[in-house]
Amino acid sequence: xxxxxxxVLVRSAQDVIDALxxxxxxxxxxxxxxxxxxxxxxxxxETRALHQQILNRLGPSPVPEDQILRDLNxxxxxxxxEIATLEIQGALQRDAGGLLRRLK
Length: 104
What we know:
single chain, 3 strands, Arc Repressor Mutant, subunit A
């Protein structure tokens, strides 16, 4: 794993000196620069339906966010935005450990 990340095998002091004289390798930033396509905009009716789907999966007992994500099969950033909206509206509560519970 370290070799893949650019670590150098050191067998002597000269290996350390040689490694310090070399400029560091540029990190592979291809994965960091990928941007996913934005989600299509939802109208009010679709947003209300999504809120209802989220709330239907919640009860007084905490439910993991991951489970709702799998059940609804939507993008994580879309789910988190709607969870934040529902939390502001007072419809749900976010608990420690990524757990959600319905309040209303």
